[in-house]
Amino acid sequence: MKLNKNYKHLGENYLFAEVSKRVEAYKSEFPNSDIISLGIGDVTQPLSAKVSEACREAGMELSTKTGFHGYGPYDGYPFLKNAIVAYYKKRGIEINPDEVFVTDGAKDALGAFLDLFDVSNTVMIPDPVYPAYVDANVMDGRKIIYVDGTRENGFLPMPPKAKADIIYLCSPNNPTGAAYTAEQLNEWVQYALDNEAVILYDAAYEAFVEDGKKAARSIFEVTGARDCAVEFCSLSKLAGFTGVRCGWTVIPMASPLNRMFMRRQATKFNGTSYVVQRMAASALSGAGLEETMKSVAVYKSNAKIITDKFDALGIEYVGGKNAPYVWFYCGIDSWEFFDYLLKKARVVVTPGSGFGKNGEGWLRITSFNTPERTQEAMKRFEAFWKEYVEVKGKLFKVIK
Ligand SMILES: *Cc1c(COP(=O)(O)O)cnc(C)c1O
Fold first, then answer.
1. Chain-wide mean pLDDT for the chain?
2. Hey, which of 62, 164, 177, 303 would disulfide with 124, CB 3.0 to 4.6 Å?
């Protein structure tokens, strides 16, 4: 037996482990301290009552002779695929149910999808970004090149001269909250078509895009995307399914990837749970969707609490409008700032350097908390920042 040597090339997966280690260390020193976490990327609003009702009904149905369901379709039940098609249609995007694959979530699907590609492909990944893209490709041994998200491009890198075969885009972005416009995505689509490349478009935060804003909710808003793109979506951040597990992937029929993914799923996946699919259908339609969007609205108003405070304090940031994340500049080493904020304000954020080299000097703050706690955190942040600005030059090296 020979092990997969590529695992040796994986970086230490230490970001959130290190965050919690430092928080635990602080707690053991100050057991009664009231720490507010705006750090983790997990939702905090409970499921909508409609979705839980769908869970109960589907569960009870399974105990009846006529309502029992065994193995379901590999690509999802028609009732959910149709609800997803209708969810797109409301925003004027036409897809066909055969193009929708129901999955156990976007992370699972993004990992599974790599089965369809040869290891000789060059992969292009934005930096900073959600860390799973890099690691999944390192495990397979593909060559990775990066495109830089920087202050200058608003953390929305555009196509470079370099060629790539597989391109990851994450918009609205985790961790920066920045979101591409359809015009910007059009450049990426042209680049992919010119290079005969595929775009793996992670739209896990599409529901946070504000209607009437310029940001795109789907890559399929762009002409030509049906010839080069696959879209990964999730109910995790949209409807609080981080623990329930459900998402979907849209693969245009014209692409050979559609049939290949069907074949892959039929071999390695036995379908998402019937109960979960009923919950997902409830979250995506009618009164269930209305309730779901109320939770999204809570996070969006929390993000506004954060950005209003940053505006008042003159802090440089991106995001917060079309995403539950605000990405702000601190001017010093991200981890140093993290420690200082934890000790002085008892507020936990996430150091940007954990998401890629371009994250150094930046931090991610999330709106996944209650409005009250977010308010309290920002009150503490304000007091902290005023003091910080005064001592920053003396205490810390200021980085560019
Ligand atoms: C949270 C997140 C995911 C994971 O979604 P699941 O459906 O829970 O697997 C995927 N992509 C991004 C960018 C995320 O932030």
1. 95
2. 164
